[in-house]
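Final report, Chapter 2: Outcomes

The project's central promise was a pipeline that accepts a single protein chain and returns its three-dimensional structure in a standardized token representation, suitable for archiving and comparison. That pipeline is now operational. To close this chapter, we reproduce one record exactly as it appears in the project archive, with the input sequence first and the structure output second.
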Amino acid sequence: MTKVCIHTLEPLQHGGVMAKVRVVGEILRDSGHHPHLMYTATDQVPSGNWTTKIKYLLTHATPSATQFEDYQGIAFPYWPLPIWATYFCPWLWMKDSRYKFPIQIVVSGAAQCGLPVALTGQRYIVWISTMYEDELEGRALAGDAWAAKTGTGLSARLLQYEEKLVIENATMVIANGEYIANKIVDKFPSVAEKIRTIVYPVDTDLFHPRRTNQEQDSDSYILFTGRINDPRKNVSMLFKAFARVLTELSDVRLVLTGDEPNDYLLESASEAGVLSKVDFVGRQTEQQLISLYQGAEVFVLASNQEGLGISVLEAMACGVPVVSTNCGGPDNIVVDGETGFLVDLNDDYHMAKHITRLLKDPHLREKFSNNAVRLAHESFSRKVMTKSLLTAFYDVYPEYFSV
């Protein structure tokens, strides 16, 4: 059994990066390998005064063994340094034989967490969903002051250089959609011959339309699933669109899954006049999430930036029409006018118009639903995409994989 290192972000139960890690981990195990996670423990530093933080940092000065779900891992210490230095620091330990793996795969949103392996000269694959510049721009558009500051000046130039090192030194680059693939090649033309587009595979055996014998909720609702407090998700704009919908359809509700809403989000809902019509249902189990998809009339995404939009794929597999902003990834998933509608960033007027049209027209919803399910099966199913990933792994590591 060969040990494999998956360089990634600190693992969380929810989110697109960990969903991709699980897919890679499953393929590796099916191929007889043993995946390990390697990441910087950015979320483990306790909040509080500097005395508390320094005490923690002094007792976590070296890498430590971790366990997340059924994955063993190595957590590198996180020091309060500029973000570019945080990505660089793990390389200081990479020469230690304990941290050397014959197979190296970077699985992330942006590429920077692959910097430690990029500096070692080994073969590696990188599977990414976004450019760091786009990620910061999306946050800045939603009012994130840290992102606006980090996206300019010396810090931005160093981050761009790190991204260049990871992408150009990779043996293979896998883009999580056509949008990001085009962005990568435009910025780094030298990688055009080693880039592939492989979208996150949706499990169509799990995510499927409601069976005819399943009970249907009586309440009509539109749905968004994701990190609702993340500024890039632009949920405050969604509230404005929903307020417009309510002027014509007063009995519909908006259901949001994810974290508990922060004060800003609650204030935004209140200012839009929709707080009493919004259900914050919190984090859901996989089966609960599937049930919510199956009962939704429309799935909505108001993001400023998305590398892919896994929730969009899941919704489509469940037969839910999608109304999304033109925020990157969804542009190449949603077929405008066939499986849903696409609108400009921050265009709450047209978002509301399309949501209302779908809610009022059950025949159009059914047409879009059937189209979405068919597209999910033909282009984004686990069977199709897993084969593509396995082929990519074989092409870089033929001695460890077979196809």
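Archive annotation: Residues 362-379 form the longest helix (18 residues).
This record, like all others produced under the grant, will remain available to the consortium after the project formally closes.
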